[in-house]
Design brief:
By secondary structure, this protein is α/β, with parallel strands linked by helices. Helix content is 42%, strand content 10%. The protein contains 8 helices and 5 strands, in the order βαβαβαββααααα. It has helices at residues 14-29, 50-58, 74-82, 122-136, 144-156, 163-172, 182-190, 200-207; strands at residues 6-9, 34-37, 63-67, 86-90, 104-106. α1 packs parallel to α4 (122-136) and α5 crosses α8 (200-207). The longest helix is centred in the N-terminal third of the chain and has 16 residues, at 14-29. The termini are far apart.
């Protein structure tokens, strides 16, 4: 609404990469400007850090959405807050205590125990956010790639196949072979499964590692 540039800060595993790609693809489709940021496994390690915040601040970006990380970065979040950067956390990892200086938290811990969404991985939370924004937006974006990425990230992260995870996977997994994504088509071709009925096992052992 305010045309702010949004930094999408993910993780370098398959769940984090698919979560990042999902939000960037969807938000771009509704004319938002996004900057994807994935930390270096070798030099930076997991999750948000002060160097990332400095890079974001140097580009005058005042809004961060984390995907598949954030709840363990309290000191970095406080640093971002001091610089006037809003941080929206979407994460499914467990944490103790209270998160301070967070603009919003999207996490399964906030849900009732019997919620069908309790088992979502990072990519599942990113999908719910994209879907909800799409419902509210005057410009309707595309969620086709989001559904393909949901299947890959959910299976790769070994999320429990219960509730919404099972429901959506049963609907969307058979459609992956028809993906419009050039990159994903390339991965399926490389794995020699582009013309077959793709299973959860194919995703786990042939797609996610790539």
């Amino acid at each position: 609404k305010n045309k702010e540039t949004i930094a999408i800060c993910g993780d370098y595993d398959a769940d984090g990469m698919t979560s990042t790609a999902l939000l960037v693809d969807f938000l771009t489709s509704i004319n938002a400007h996004c900057l994807p940021i994935i930390p270096s496994r070798e030099s930076e390690g997991y999750g948000l850090n002060n160097n990332i915040i400095d890079r974001i601040s140097d580009q005058s970006i005042n809004l961060i959405i984390t995907v598949d990380n954030g709840v363990s970065a309290q000191e970095t979040i406080s640093y971002a807050f001091k610089l006037g950067i809003d941080v929206i956390i979407t994460d499914h990892h467990s944490f103790k205590g209270q998160l301070n200086n967070v603009y919003a938290l999207v996490h399964p811990i906030t849900l009732p125990e019997n919620s069908e969404y309790k088992y979502l991985a990072g990519v599942g939370l990113a999908y719910v956010m994209a879907y909800t924004i799409n419902q509210m937006s005057q410009i309707k974006g595309s969620l086709a790639l989001s559904r393909d990425l949901f299947c890959i990230g959910t299976i790769a992260d070994m999320a429990k196949l219960k509730g919404a995870n099972r429901y959506w996977l049963k609907q969307w997994l058979p459609q992956i072979k028809n993906t419009t994504s050039i990159g994903l088509k390339g991965i399926l071709d490389k794995a020699k499964i582009s013309k077959t009925v793709i299973s959860a096992q194919d995703i786990a052992f042939k797609v996610a590692p790539r």
